[in-house]
Amino acid sequence: MRTPCVARVAVPAHRSDSLDGPRRPPRAVTGYFHMVATRAPHDDTAPPPGLLGLFSFGSTRRPAPPPGYAYSCEDASLLKPLYYRLFVNPLAAVAPARLRANDVTFVSQLFALLPAFIGIASTRTDLPGWVLAVVAPLGYLGYIVLDHLDGTHARKTGTSSPLGELVDHWCDAWNAPLLTFACGLNWNASPLLASALGFVTGLALCLAYEEQRITGKMRLDALGSSEALTGMGLSMILMGVVGKDVAVGIHLPFGVSLALALQMVSLVGSGGAIAMALVRGGPRLFAGVWPYAAGAGIVMVWVERGLDLRVAPFMMAALSATVAGRMVIERTTGLRVRVESVGLVLLALGLVLALVGPGWGMTRVAAWVVCAVLLARPCADFLWAVLVLRRFVRKGELLSLVTGGEEAPPSEG
């Protein structure tokens, strides 16, 4: 997430003439996790919604961000000062002004995918030591550093915006369960335990986003994502140097193996973040995150019944990106939504096929189809929100391919 972020970035709402007038709630729109949206009346001057509109939230002609929008964050990360001193500040000092902060975020996402794919691949083949010792830690390091650099560069260049929050937090919503799930597999955790690691990490992130949606402030604990990712990277270096089987079999005091210790530390760390969020926000936080908890629970049961481990981490990541991503979309676009159970039914049907289906081939096809739909849903949400916030897209950045490349006005934050 973009840090340090103690300052508040406020962007006044802009209304177009075509959006003036009373609002009325429309019917539910289609798609995975049926949504009911509150939006403006029909705009005759807007183009037809097209496939994206039908698959997501309807017309993108709406005032955004909502009135009173502001970004505020308290980051107590223990390692943040070290990363800033060694990497973020030196890079920010030499980064050219033409570099777009959102593009930095997308590059950080590519770095995050390196250890994710390595962890998943480790379940099917023995990887060379240099892959574990060099490539995976480089992926963690690149993700951590660039995930801090994007916000620093945006503030330096005066391009902070609601779009930046959307891009940054939407990418983080994918990575929280995906990286932990994949790393658990690399630690030789059982499929069920690895999925539990991904589940609790994704739940901690969803609760943090829901707390931000309710209170207006993001709170990051002292032992958070930077510390967890650093630990994962160090464990990969050890595995690459001494060998994976040797590393995970190292015995610690009380007869505990290193692999088990790493798994328990991950569970306790995420559990602590969940507990702190509930202490601050109370049970009301579950009102927004139960779809993720229910969906991820179904994925865990399906994993226990033999779900392909090449798709299970991405299913859980897609659930997090959908649920947490829509919290960010509500904050940045003002679209108020409520969650239905269509996506949960889709997952449940896939699980039923796994339990009583005609054969492994059909079950495998069903798993890949369900995964494809789950992956498409948050991507459609994201593209819809980008179109709503297109006035913040800068000429030449990657997202200009979606919006048409119009130059955005200077940031007002």
User: Distance N terminus to C terminus?
Assistant: 18 Å
- The shape, in one word, is globular
DSSP helix fraction: 55-70%
Unreliable residue stretches: 6-54, 409-413
The tally of strands reads 6
Strand order of the largest sheet: 1-2
Mean pLDDT: 83
**Rounded Rg:** 21 Å
Count helical runs: 14
Largest sheet: 2 strands, antiparallel
From N to C, what is the helix and strand string? EHEEHHHHHEHHEEHHHHHH
Fraction of residues in β-strands:
under 5%
Structural class: mainly alpha
Provide a concise account of the structure shown.
This protein is mostly helical. The chain has helices spanning 50-55, 80-94, 101-121, 129-157, 162-186, 191-215, 225-242, 244-248, 258-281, 286-304, 312-333, 342-356, 360-388, 400-403, and strands spanning 9-10, 70-71, 73-75, 218-220, 251-252, 256-257. It contains 14 helices and 6 strands.
What does this structure look like?
The protein is mostly helical and 413 residues long. The chain is built from 14 helices and 6 strands. A hairpin with a 3-residue loop joins strand 5 and strand 6.
Keywords:
two-stranded parallel ribbon; 14 helices; disordered C terminus; 62% helix; 413 residues; two-stranded antiparallel ribbon; mainly alpha
Give the secondary structure arrangement, pairings included.
Blueprint: E1 9-10, H1 50-55, E2 70-71, E3 73-75, H2 80-94, H3 101-121, H4 129-157, H5 162-186, H6 191-215, E4 218-220, H7 225-242, H8 244-248, E5 251-252, E6 256-257, H9 258-281, H10 286-304, H11 312-333, H12 342-356, H13 360-388, H14 400-403
Helix pairs in contact: 2-4, 3-4, 3-5, 4-7, 5-6, 5-7, 5-11, 6-9, 6-10, 6-11, 10-11, 10-12, 11-13, 12-13
